[in-house]
């Protein structure tokens, strides 16, 4: 008799899990409480996979021998409580995929910086000719990648939600970039619960695996000392030159394996946070067997993800930068830290309990004008009313970019780095960034047309 797998959620992870389960011969039922996107529905139909949408039919779910749930479904959801009460094993798609993996895994997590680090690591391996797949929170689901073909390496961006659903997952190289308070509503408002979730990346490591972590992060430094971690530990630092991988104030130094040094100017990434991301990615690439020559070549050709310090255009000597992915204050720290100023800073949206004192000093030093983009801007205006000389607000992106250009002077940077979620005016941070990019490019054409 076939084992019955029920998959809750039919997005990228759920559909990927269904495709892999189908290939492995399981009986499958996919259930999504929301409407399923057409592209995923067509895949399920093409593979003759039974599914429902707009509801969870309990009778069709509770008879499963294994539940694979979307990382977005919290444990406190009623259907999950019932599955747990019935004693059914519940895992994440990433855990399911890992059970069939043949290659090795580089897994990257952290509150901030994980997308850039994941994309850079993947780029370095791919450009060096390694048979590598990109998976997890960026790219396709791990299960889908495994279903389609085998790879020698899988570079995975992994969230705390995904880590919560793992039981055997074990990366050959695990990277933890930082931990700052985030998603605490999911973790009973206890930071330690969130920390424990992130450190699940090390749980099954053996002495043949390597754990890369940022040693200057106070939480990581404390937790690494307090926890039994079986994997080899590789610390990276911006200040401690005794660590194998560090920044000496001029160049990044890689002192293990093949020793060499790289200046940030030899890469395409700006800012101190990207020194951390680059040191982590290069270290992972070295552990995967890449040479210095291959790494240098890859660093010179890397393009970062959209919406993360993405340089959109220069208009009248003013650079417009899309950092819409900066949805919390800690991300904005990185954005502000990437420029010496002056800045026209665009912020606002749905506040997530932000502590703006964390960036007050940097804002005071660098920001010429703050433009609030959101429906409710009182908290931002109150936080920076005595810090920034000029504060304006709008709910129109087209008006926003014209306002920003009027406020800026030649050599300034207009930085969209919102510190807030986007759901008051936009579908998501991508929509916010896309609208900003389009408005900037439209303004550029308009300005250039007038100058002819």
TrEMBL record:
Superkingdom of source: Bacteria
Claim: Cell wall biogenesis/degradation is one of the keywords in the record: yes
Alphabetical keyword list: ATP-binding, Cell cycle, Cell division, Cell shape, Cell wall biogenesis/degradation, Cytoplasm, Ligase, Nucleotide-binding, Peptidoglycan synthesis
Domain Mur ligase central stretches: 108-285
Localization of this protein: Cytoplasm
UniProt pathway annotation: Cell wall biogenesis; peptidoglycan biosynthesis
Known catalytic reactions: UDP-N-acetyl-alpha-D-muramoyl-L-alanine + D-glutamate + ATP = UDP-N-acetyl-alpha-D-muramoyl-L-alanyl-D-glutamate + ADP + phosphate + H(+)
SUPFAM superfamilies in UniProt: MurCD N-terminal domain, MurD-like peptide ligases, catalytic domain, MurD-like peptide ligases, peptide-binding domain
GO MF annotation list: ATP binding; tetrahydrofolylpolyglutamate synthase activity; UDP-N-acetylmuramoylalanine-D-glutamate ligase activity
GO biological process entries: cell division; cell wall organization; peptidoglycan biosynthetic process; regulation of cell shape
UniProt domain Mur ligase C-terminal: residue ranges: 307-420
Major enzyme class: ligase
GO cellular component: cytoplasm
InterPro entries to which the protein is assigned, alphabetical: Folylpolyglutamate_synth_CS, Mur-like_cat_sf, Mur_ligase_C, Mur_ligase_C_dom_sf, Mur_ligase_cen, MurD
UniProt binding sites for ATP: 110-116
NCBIfam families named among the record's database cross-references: murD (TIGR01087)
Function: Cell wall formation. Catalyzes the addition of glutamate to the nucleotide precursor UDP-N-acetylmuramoyl-L-alanine (UMA).
HAMAP family: MurD (MF_00639)
UniProt record similarity statement: Belongs to the MurCDEF family.
UniProt-recorded name of the protein: UDP-N-acetylmuramoylalanine--D-glutamate ligase
Organism this protein belongs to: Chryseotalea sanaruensis
Gene, per the UniProt record: murD
């Amino acid at each position: 008799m076939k084992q019955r797998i029920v998959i809750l959620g039919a997005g990228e992870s759920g559909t990927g899990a269904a495709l892999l389960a189908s290939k492995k011969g399981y009986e499958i039922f996919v259930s999504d409480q929301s409407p399923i996107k057409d592209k995923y529905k067509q895949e399920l139909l093409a593979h003759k996979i039974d599914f429902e949408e707009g509801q969870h039919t309990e009778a069709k779910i509770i008879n499963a021998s294994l539940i694979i749930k979307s990382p977005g479904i919290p444990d406190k959801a009623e259907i999950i409580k019932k599955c747990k009460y019935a004693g059914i094993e519940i895992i994440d798609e990433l855990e399911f995929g890992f059970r069939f993996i043949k290659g090795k895994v580089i897994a990257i997590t952290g509150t901030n910086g994980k997308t850039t680090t994941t994309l850079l690591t993947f780029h370095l391996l791919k450009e060096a000719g390694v048979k590598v797949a990109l998976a997890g929170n960026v790219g396709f689901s791990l299960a889908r990648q495994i279903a389609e073909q085998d790879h020698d390496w899988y570079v995975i961006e992994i969230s705390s939600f995904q880590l919560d659903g793992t039981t055997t997952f074990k990366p050959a190289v695990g990277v933890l970039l930082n931990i700052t308070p985030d998603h605490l509503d999911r973790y009973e408002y206890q930071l330690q619960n969130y920390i424990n979730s992130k450190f699940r990346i090390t749980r099954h490591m053996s002495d043949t695996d390597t754990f890369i972590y940022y040693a200057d992060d106070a939480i990581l430094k404390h937790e690494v000392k307090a926890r039994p971690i079986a994997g080899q530990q590789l610390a990276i630092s911006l200040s401690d030159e005794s660590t194998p991988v560090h920044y000496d104030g001029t160049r990044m130094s890689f002192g293990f394996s093949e020793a060499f040094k790289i200046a940030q100017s030899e890469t395409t990434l700006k800012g101190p946070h990207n020194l951390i991301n680059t040191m982590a990615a290069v270290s992972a690439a070295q552990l995967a067997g890449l040479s210095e020559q291959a790494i240098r070549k890859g660093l010179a050709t890397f393009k970062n993800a959209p919406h993360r310090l993405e340089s959109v255009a220069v208009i009248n000597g003013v650079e417009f930068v899309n950092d819409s992915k900066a949805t919390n204050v800690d991300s904005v720290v990185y954005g502000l830290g990437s420029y010496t100023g002056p800045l026209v800073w665009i912020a606002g949206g749905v506040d997530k309990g932000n502590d703006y004192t964390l960036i007050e000093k940097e804002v005071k030093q660098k920001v010429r004008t703050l433009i609030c983009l959101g429906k409710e801007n009182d908290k931002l205006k109150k936080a920076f009313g005595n810090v920034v000389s000029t504060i304006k607000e709008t709910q129109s992106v087209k008006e926003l970019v014209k306002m920003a250009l009027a406020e800026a002077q030649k050599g300034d940077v207009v930085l969209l780095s919102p510190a807030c979620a986007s759901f008051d005016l936009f579908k998501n941070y991508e929509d916010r960034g896309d609208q900003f990019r389009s408005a900037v490019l439209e303004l550029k054409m308009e300005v250039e047309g007038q100058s002819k």
